[in-house]
Amino acid sequence: MRDLYSRHKSVLPEWLALYYAEPLEITHGEGRHVWDAEGRKYLDFFGGILTTMTAHALPEVTKAVSEQAGRIIHSSTLYLNRPMIDLAERVAGLSGIPDARVFFTTSGTEANDTALLLATAHRRSNQVLAMRNSYHGRSFTAVGITGNSSWSPTSLSPLQTLYVHGGVRGRGPYAELTDAEFTEACVADLRDMLGQARGGVAALIAEPIQGVGGFTSPPDGLYAAFREVLREHGILWISDEVQTGWGRTGDHFWGWQAHAASGPPDMLTFAKGIGNGMSIGGVVASADVMNSLDSNSISTFGGSPVTMAAGNANLTYLLEHDLQGNARRVGGLLIERLRAICAHIPVVREVRGRGLMIGIELVDPTTGEANPRAAADALEAAREGGLLIGKGGGHDTSVLRIAPPMTLTVAEAEEGATILERALRDV
Length: 427
Fold this sequence. Notes:
The protein is an alpha/beta fold and 427 residues long. 38% of the residues lie in helices and 16% in strands. The protein has helices at 2-11, 47-50, 59-71, 82-95, 108-123, 140-145, 179-196, 222-233, 287-290, 305-320, 323-342, 372-384, 410-426, and strands at 26-30, 33-36, 41-44, 100-105, 127-131, 160-164, 203-206, 236-240, 267-270, 281-286, 348-353, 358-362, 387-388, 390-392, 399-402. The protein has a 7-stranded mixed sheet with strand order 4-10-9-8-7-5-6, sandwiched between helices. β7, α8 (222-233) and β8 (236-240) form a beta-alpha-beta unit. α3 (59-71) packs antiparallel against α10, α4 crosses α10 and α11 (323-342) runs parallel beside α13 (410-426).
């Protein structure tokens, strides 16, 4: 393993993050478990950064990929592509966006990049509203709107970005307000922000639950209230569903549906889980927005027949086995179990989340300040106990991120909670 780590460092960028003091090579997986190169088995509570949405080595997806690869692997969007059209029809129907059109990409970063291109072209403006503590990908454009300094390596951007309050409920200047007062204050902030913008702003892009930011979210209905203000100015709403889509939150199929009082977004972006490990991203937009580009375009790898076969098989499995319902039931049990455990652990400030998207925020018990060392130690201790989790948070938080495959069983949820309890008590 040390030899592989040395080879990694000799040919890959220094800024390419690795978990653990002794980095891990995962060689294979099955269900909710993976194995490392030394044969050790782990319960996976992070799913390749929420990407292995259903299960490792899901037979239905593996079979679909193998059969499609045996026919043709690639053709590009210059030719009709039956698997792509099949998946686009299903995603459009599920999106909630009227007269929807779907464009497939290879990642969430590229999906958000495309949505920003569409919005700025449609509105003839390079001004974009984004949420504080947000993360939307690693491309130049996506980094330019990311409201999280830990993941924003440059201040340069092709866009003029204005940051709005509301993505973080438990910290910041409005934290002590009631939910209704919080929403009212954030709407007032949005109106004030628009008063400072020159000309027409193109869009607001927002994650219904902020992923890299530490699984934090506003009160339900905040983005519906924002939507009313945006409509007054003709500003588009982009819902970044890269992490919240496909029923992971349990209560809703899409994160935006917790804010549905003012209707669906103009665009939503998706990726990660739909491919169950295959590289799929995409944008859904109303036809008038999607068709507003006045030049030709293609995607060389977006909508690949192999990845589309995986997406179709995975979506079928998810719907037929009601994995949204499982996320609601098992996720609800898991979050309550974790809250009971953490109520007596001083380093834990908050357990939050929805469905199988749970964050545990760690602090210095004496000061209440972020505790990145504790988060790193807990990550290591969980691994020693046989559990893989993630971490994240904004500039003033340290959060353990828990997002298992959505087929998680009650017994596995209890096993993971027990390991986490030991890890947190060790910290």
